[in-house]
Design goal:
By secondary structure, this protein is mainly beta. The chain contains 2 helices and 15 strands. The structure holds 6-O-phosphono-alpha-D-mannopyranose (M6P) and zinc ion.
Length: about 190
């Protein structure tokens, strides 16, 4: 069993940031996932230019064991690449049948999810909403608002991140702005992009 002592961490309710600096965030910029956006040219141009920060999140240095809970916050900034909202890379869990819980602290957006069999779901999130992502569902956060979307998350410590499937095939759906509102469209690049 993991030899982890009780500990406390601070995550700001509005910004999601660990202000004590006890843990350091991982940053993802457009260049880290340019191929994931449907408008590849817009993504490449952004990546080659100001290369904006899309999101930052905290992962703890805990043992990857089934009895451990991994937790932290993700701060996803507002913006779009072309007409597609800023989003996280998204992943399946390596142990596919492990779930995750998200609690929205601030901002506005949603979670785009799909199973390997092709079932798709989209759940909107606002402050105070808790979302259960069951095992087998890939999950990607999307910021459809004008403020940072901040979510607290918890998942099983040995779940792992499988990014390869999403990197190879993409998501079946994209979330884009139409007349100021988010809509789901088929991803024109699904499966085909490399
Ligand atoms: C969430 C959690 C983390 C994840 C992070 C960033 O906060 O699911 O495990 O690492 O989002 O998302 P991604 O790993 O898809 O870039
Ligand atoms: Zn996850």
């Amino acid at each position: 069993m993991a030899d982890v002592k009780p500990f406390v961490l601070d995550f700001n309710l509005l910004t999601g940031l660990c202000e004590s600096g006890k843990v350091k965030p991982t940053l993802r910029h457009v260049s880290n996932m340019a191929a994931q956006f449907a408008d590849h040219e817009a993504a490449q141009a952004l990546a080659a230019g100001e290369n904006p920060l899309l999101y930052e999140f905290y992962g703890l240095d805990l043992p990857e064991e089934s009895g451990v809970l991994q937790f932290g916050t993700t701060k996803l900034y507002p913006g779009k690449v072309g007409d597609e909202y800023y989003m996280t890379k998204g992943h399946f869990h390596t142990i596919l049948d492990t779930s995750e819980v998200y609690y929205c602290l601030s901002g506005q957006g949603g979670m785009l999810m799909e199973t390997p069999e092709g079932e798709v779901d989209w759940k909107e999130m606002k402050p105070g909403d808790a979302l259960y992502v069951p095992g087998r569902w890939a999950h990607r956060s999307v910021n459809t608002g004008s403020e940072p979307l901040v979510m607290f998350f918890v998942y099983r410590g040995d779940a792992g991140h499988d990014y390869g499937t999403i990197e190879e095939k993409g998501y079946r759906k994209i979330v884009v702005e139409r007349d100021g509102k988010p809509v789901l469209l088929d991803n024109p690049k699904w499966v085909t992009f490399s």
